[in-house]
């Protein structure tokens, strides 16, 4: 591959080898590093897939390298819980009966062929695992535990070796975080990971820039430039800082022909945008609630905790606080029977804790009370403002959504706004909006992801730049692994093309 890297001391030794750069180190980054480290998937000889159409296609390439195949052809006709064709294909290959809970073995075998490894770096703020390392450890995953695993390392077997068991076939976030960290070590990927790094700028250099013209001291503080270029001539400059002992940060600058963005969406919690949201008693992450419980700044004897939101994060906060006896006000905009409410879409037997929260929301409104001591539900309410002294003004939403409902002031000890999160792309020009499906709107995993090719995950408006995971609209670990499959196939084809020039 025609790539180049210049490294500061923290990256150990300057390297003349070609290199790709991956930002950050969550499941998408880990999976891509696995592929780039020479682990290659082959179609298992004699495999029998339960999907007859896919079975016939696999019989034609039995024993062959998956990366050499026409992935678009293989993914035709597959459907499931994602719109990503490669996500569906990879999931169908490694979990042939994933939705039925069957026992058909993976259609892939893995070989490590070091001669095909691609030099790369994976940068992240924390340990391998990304946002999973920052989550409250006792929470249970929405997805089944088996759906959280990385290629060629059974999560269920790993749990058994540790003397742990799945609960309703689901796992705690602590187990998932430890599994991802173990995976990096077990597969020998540590040399590619640089933790404690903060990327501050990713920009495309002018098309006539060559590696020999670059020097670390030339790095500027400009953002992503957005100029276009072909796959051979692109050269990106990445700037940031490495955390050192004592809490100091040392700047670094490196260059790469290809950059893969895998930052996820948990860096920037969504704000309501109402008056007083910046007051010191208003918070936006469950981590803030955990700290408040640890320091006992809230407890059974305090004023209520106000939780705003009706998603799974808000439900986790309700469960955590209610379990500690903290009085609760729970405000949300939707009706409890709204079909779009996530609790109305989850099977009760598989997700009993979330259905408990739904029951609390449904049976304990402010006016009538109910069986859940210390908890009050405020359905169809919107926040109007926060004021000093813990005064929160909420307004009832009446038919048609007009702002004509009754307003009421509540006194709270803490307000926790959990209404979603968005990616932090401040290191890109215009925070990446120019690269999104709708350049006029902020980048959002659900509403406005980056515009990528569905089979290479290369950003359509910028060759050499790739996006994985939620940035590309893939929300579940189970399906986001198709993205790394597309990226590595694209990079290897670029390498072949470059060699022929």
TrEMBL record:
One GO CC term on file: midbody
Superkingdom to which the source organism belongs: Eukaryota
Cofactor: NADPH
Biological processes annotated in GO: cell differentiation; negative regulation of cell growth
Chief location bin: other
Record-level Gene Ontology MF annotations: growth factor activity; monooxygenase activity
Annotated function: Monooxygenase catalytic activity. Involved in regulation of cytokinesis; promotes RHOA activity, probably acting locally at the midbody in late cytokinesis. Monooxygenase activity is involved in stabilizing transient structures between daughter cells, termed intercellular bridges, before abscission. Regulates differentiation and proliferation through the regulation of cell death.
Sequence similarity: Belongs to the OKL38 family.
Protein name: Oxidative stress-induced growth inhibitor 1
Organism name: Albula glossodonta
Lineage of the organism: Eukaryota, Metazoa, Chordata, Craniata, Vertebrata
């Amino acid at each position: 591959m025609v790539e180049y890297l210049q490294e500061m001391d923290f990256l150990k030794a300057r390297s003349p080898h070609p290199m790709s750069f991956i930002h950050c180190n969550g499941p998408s980054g880990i999976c891509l590093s696995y592929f780039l480290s020479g682990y290659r998937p082959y179609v298992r000889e004699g495999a029998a897939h339960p999907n007859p159409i896919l079975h016939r296609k696999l019989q034609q390439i039995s024993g062959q390298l998956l990366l050499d195949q026409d992935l678009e052809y293989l993914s035709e006709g597959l459907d499931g819980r994602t719109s990503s064709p490669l996500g569906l294909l990879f999931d169908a290959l490694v979990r042939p009966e994933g939705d039925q809970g069957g026992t058909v073995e993976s259609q892939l075998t893995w070989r490590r062929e070091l001669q095909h490894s691609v030099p790369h770096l994976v940068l992240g703020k924390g340990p391998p695992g990304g946002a999973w390392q920052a989550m409250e450890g006792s929470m249970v995953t929405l997805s089944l535990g088996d759906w959280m695993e990385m290629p060629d390392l059974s999560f269920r077997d790993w749990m058994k070796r540790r003397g742990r068991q799945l609960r309703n076939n689901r796992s705690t976030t602590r187990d998932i975080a430890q599994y991802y960290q173990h995976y990096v070590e077990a597969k020998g990927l540590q040399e590619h990971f640089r933790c404690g790094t903060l990327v501050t700028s990713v920009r495309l250099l002018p098309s006539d820039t060559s590696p020999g013209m670059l020097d670390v001291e030339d790095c500027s503080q400009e953002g992503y430039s957005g100029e276009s270029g072909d796959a051979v001539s692109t050269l990106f400059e990445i700037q940031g800082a490495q955390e050192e002992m004592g809490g100091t940060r040392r700047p670094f600058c490196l260059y790469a022909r290809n950059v893969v963005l895998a930052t996820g969406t948990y860096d920037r919690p969504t704000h309501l945008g109402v008056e007083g949201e910046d007051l010191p008693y208003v918070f936006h992450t469950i981590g803030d609630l955990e700290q408040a419980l640890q320091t006992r700044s809230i407890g059974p004897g305090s004023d209520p905790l106000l939780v705003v939101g009706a998603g799974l994060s808000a439900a986790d906060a309700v469960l955590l606080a209610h379990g500690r006896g903290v009085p609760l006000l729970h405000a949300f905009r939707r009706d409890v029977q709204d079909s779009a409410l996530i609790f109305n879409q989850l099977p009760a037997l598989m997700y009993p804790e979330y259905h408990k929260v739904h029951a609390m929301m449904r049976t304990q409104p402010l006016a009538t009370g109910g069986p859940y001591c210390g908890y009050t539900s405020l359905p169809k309410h919107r926040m109007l403002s926060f004021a000093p002294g813990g005064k929160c003004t909420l307004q009832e939403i009446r038919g048609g959504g007009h702002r004509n409902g009754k307003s009421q002031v509540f006194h709270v000890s803490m307000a926790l706004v959990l209404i979603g999160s968005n990616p932090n792309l401040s290191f890109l020009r215009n925070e990446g909006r120019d690269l999104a499906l709708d350049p006029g709107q902020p980048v959002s995993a659900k509403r406005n992801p980056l515009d990528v090719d569905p089979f290479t995950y290369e950003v359509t408006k910028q060759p050499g730049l790739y996006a994985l995971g939620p940035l590309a609209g893939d929300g579940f670990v189970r399906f986001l692994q198709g993205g790394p499959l597309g990226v590595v196939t694209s990079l290897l084809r670029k390498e072949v093309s470059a060699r022929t020039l």
